[in-house]
């Protein structure tokens, strides 16, 4: 099974292509999308276990040996992310059956979702920097379709800005790749990593690093580059918002982690810049999350906070910090998907996203309320739940790197995160009960079951942390020692 | 030659920035198209503009051009083309739906979904 890394990309690609031919047959679309994303999940799980049991899997496409052709690399970090992505997309496809609405389903919603899965899985797997750009474009194109799908006024207005921002950042990405190519003469990430170590003018490399930080920072919505995110993400319907919030920003985070750990492992300036920006991201995110009275905006700003926390953990460059960052990254993908799904139900019940206009939904829909409660505690990192261990490790890493201010800020931000999500619970779910008659009941199985699965996964992720420790530790070792990656790809 | 190409790329990017900062949707899109042209020129120049024979397989070639930048801009051009055409369609729909092509008038928050 040497072709293993390609399956999580190939299966959804074939499915998406097939789905393009009969957009109006909604039942068939649903069935094929659900089955193939389930298959993708199984394939990526198998890949993860293989990579864990043996070692990094690489696949040279077209049998061109490593530095010349395009190489797919599944190390443990990328395999973990691919598995999480496939799991989230699988759940969200089932969740979409009732939530997205028939009009949108008939206009290539499922193919767009599958193409997005192709792009994200590809971006996590590829070992070639230009190919990373191509996969970025694949999922961006799918995300353009999904953000504009339905064509309401708000969506059109916001999607124009969203596309513009991403076109600009893609242009910067190509510039950064051009610079990198002129300095190293290679596109293979492992090869670049090996060559950059011996290149002298550090200033030039720092410029390239900052360009990469701008490009991926725009995707991941870090501090000065987040301005487009809150309004763009609030425009499309909830399942699309959940995909964006759970996956797209995390691709930016992954790319920062990957390029920084491979290309600039020794560059103090870049890492201190990253650490500073991560902390500012947390501060701004917390301000937004506390200030808004709109359930969508509160969770969207929480996405930003998480990006800051992960990047801070990564920027500490200690074993505990990086391991915590990997832990927290996967926790956050799962729990953000779950939270968006739950507030989607809340919006479905009350018909509004304004917190001041809703109250007491728990009386009529107790399951939604309690699931939200668990998810909110898990997000804030209350001990046995999943957010705790990642944050603990990140803070320990921060102390080891003597970043006391940063660690303190993360501790403080946890409290405010808890406040912001509890605000939704106390105002929207608790409180004076009112009578609601939603058009689609959120208790229908196709909405409820994927949500329960996601929340359950988040709980198990917390309780099973001990078992997952070996995966995360391996990933952290890989990130801190780029030689392993180089050896695996270049087969030295 | 590289210097001339860099200047041309710079001019294209400058024109693109000017257009993107304007208020009309169409100008912004033309700006993004110009931007990608400038960027592609730069990507092409980054490999070094040497003259030589075609990049054929085999180790005995005396001189050959670097095939990689050509492959890269070919891919990048196709992507930019696709995105630009999609962008034009979105702008047209936005113009139909919102009744304006001026980004100043597109501001505001209305909950219509």
Explain what you see:
The complex is a heterodimer of chains A (492) and B (113). Chain A is mostly helical and 492 residues long. Chain A has a domain at 267-485. Helices cover 77% and strands 2% of the residues of chain A. Chain A has a two-stranded antiparallel sheet with strand order 1-2. The model of chain A has no long low-confidence stretch (mean pLDDT 90). Chain B is mainly α and 113 residues long. Chain B has one domain (1-51, 65-100): Helix Hairpins, CATH 1.10.287. Chain B is built from three helices and no strands. In chain B, helix 1 (2-20) packs antiparallel against helix 2 and helix 2 (25-46) runs antiparallel to helix 3. Chain B is elongated. The termini of chain B are far apart. The model of chain B has no long low-confidence stretch (mean pLDDT 86). Chains A and B meet through helix 6 and helix 7 of A and helix 2 and helix 3 of B.
What topology emerges from the helices and strands here?
The complex is a heterodimer of chains A (492) and B (113).
Chain A: H1 7-19, H2 26-53, E1 57-60, E2 71-74, H3 76-99, H4 102-105, H5 109-125, H6 129-148, H7 153-184, H8 189-196, H9 202-220, H10 229-234, H11 238-263, H12 268-291, H13 295-315, H14 319-350, H15 361-364, H16 366-380, H17 387-400, H18 404-429, H19 445-463, H20 465-480, H21 482-490
Helix pairs in contact in A: 1-2, 1-5, 2-3, 3-5, 3-11, 3-14, 3-19, 5-6, 6-7, 6-11, 7-9, 8-21, 9-11, 11-13, 11-14, 12-13, 12-18, 13-14, 13-17, 13-18, 14-16, 14-17, 14-19, 14-20, 16-18, 16-19, 17-18
Chain B: H1 2-20, H2 25-46, H3 67-98
